[in-house]
Write a structure and sequence with these properties.
By secondary structure, this protein is an alpha/beta fold. It is 47% helix and 11% strand. It is built from 13 helices and six strands. The protein has a six-stranded mixed beta sheet with strand order 3-2-1-4-6-5, sandwiched between helices. A hairpin with a 2-residue loop joins strand 2 and strand 3 (100-104). Helix 8 crosses helix 9 and helix 9 (174-197) packs across helix 11 (215-221). The protein is globular, with a radius of gyration of 20 Å. The structure holds adenosine monophosphate (AMP). Residues 88-89, 117, 161-163, 208-210, 213-214 line the site of adenosine monophosphate.
Length: 277
Amino acid sequence: HNPANLMGIEAAEAAMPGKPNVAVWDTGFGMKMPEKAYLYAIPHEYYEKYSIRRYGFHGTSHDFVSKRVGELLGKDRKDLKIIVCHLGNGASVSAVDHGKSVDTSMGLTPLEGLMMGTRSGDMDPAIVGFIAEKENLTAAEVINICNKNSGVLGLSGISSDFRDLVEAAAAGNDHAQTTLEAYAYRVGKYIGAYAAAMNGVDAIVFTAGIGENNAQVRALISQYTGFLGCEIDLEKNKAAVGVEAVISTPESKVTALVVPTNEELAIARETVRLVNA
Ligand code: AMP
């Protein structure tokens, strides 16, 4: 995204000479995660030479949404363990432990982690070499397929857009149904992993296009959260479309919420904070 961002900075400098320009890094929040979470188990020299590590993409959204969860629950975020599920065309899950991002599912690039609109998410890296050999492609070409032709689009063969997928599943398309189930299963697995990473969880929050609007996917994900003591109220879940809402039952040990993200507002706030400092 950086060349396009630089164009914006250059245009603003030309239009408003002498005014401060602020760059808000999407990785700012996630970069503070501990070494044990950001290092890959490959020779350490690659980290030293090339800075190969997990970077924490979507940090602006995970920061904004987890802060908002604290406000909605009437608590300081510093007293909570929160799992944020940012489910948009790009998708990631993060563990926010007492206000700090301690792990997140995207990696060196946004390709790792959840299944996304067109990205594969986690897979055995040996697949890249295998496909390259079988299809006579370069590694870069296979990675491009993993970024642009995989995920929900690749697996369903229908679309990267969840609205098309839900419609096709309702019409009885097996590939669409399997894709929906595989998508939710992966989110469920990350929720379990991050509950373990924080040794507990107080709140699970859904955000971005799918997380905010798609009650069916949230209901499918809730099949995997019962063991944590997170009980979704299916009626509240159905009613929560594009709005802030608690979607768990009053008895639920873990609160589940929908919180629309607002990365633009978060960036504006960071900018004001910096220029006023
Ligand atoms: P984002 O990248 O956050 O804009 O999210 C895009 C994804 O959200 C696409 O898969 C859309 O199908 C999905 N999405 C956006 N709006 C809705 C909606 N009203 N109902 C269901 N899915 C939606």
